[in-house]
Amino acid sequence: MKISPYAVGALLYAPANQENLARRVIQGQMDAPYSLALCLEDSISDCAVPEAEARAVQTLDEIARADEDVYRPLLFIRVRHPDQIPSLWTRLGAGREILTGFIAPKFTQTNGPAYLAAVRQISEQSGRPVYLMPTLESSDLAEPDLRPECLRRLKTLLDANRDLVLNVRVGGNDFCDVFGVRRARHQTIYEIGCVERILTDILSCFSRDYVVSGPVWEYFDAPEGLNGLARELERDLLAGFVGKTVIHPNQIVVVQNGLRVSKADADDARRILGMADNDRVLVEKSADGGRMNEYKTHTRWARKICALAAIYGVKP
Known about the structure:
about 15% strand; eight-stranded parallel β-sheet; two-stranded antiparallel ribbon; about 40% helix; TIM Barrel; alpha/beta
């Protein structure tokens, strides 16, 4: 079954060697809807990779064998390199049936073809899409002169495999690391000018055709960290990002609430799409009379709002 790219939403990163992760999913200890990534990359030391791979396979198989009434999030494995994808796939048992796809860190023009070839091969073998979510976070994107051509080539690569690309993701912390900067709890990543320009260029290149998810928020302490997450999520949505990588279960509900649409937006979105049947007038006042709705300039926005409303609901 085809998955909406808007459904990824709050993507919780968890080290793949974390114990009792399957039990927490099966027992519904995290707020739904959410997605889950079993990470084999930055959160795992090099010497712990074999153990983490085995644990990831076990976690997925345990979730797959659980009662059918259990809520299963969209499930991903974040690998280190393309060769891990077929290796892990051959080791999965029941987990094959519930694995949504793989996350490719530091996705570049060099390693990208191998990542895409790996997921296409197992998709064809399994008879269903096994998705890839490439993460744009390599240091070459930090070079202002190289970035436009680099982004164009990356998009050409993804466009040729668009049926397998569920989301495009960005590595905000990786870009911050290039410049030796870090935002505080009361700041957003958009206040770091050199990083904000990279994110804006990525959105300009990809967001017309792909759902691009916002950068990870690294503070999980309450309430300051959660308030900071809410502020940055608001900026994410305004910029054009949809969804966010999170690092603690208590962040999931913040992202869920941020993705819920206002009643005014939901009403206007439906009215805008309803203008398609009007053969005379393609502009009208909003439901509350406060703004203009125009079919030819607001249709793409309206479709996104309706998709988000269907998945995350409408705020009272």
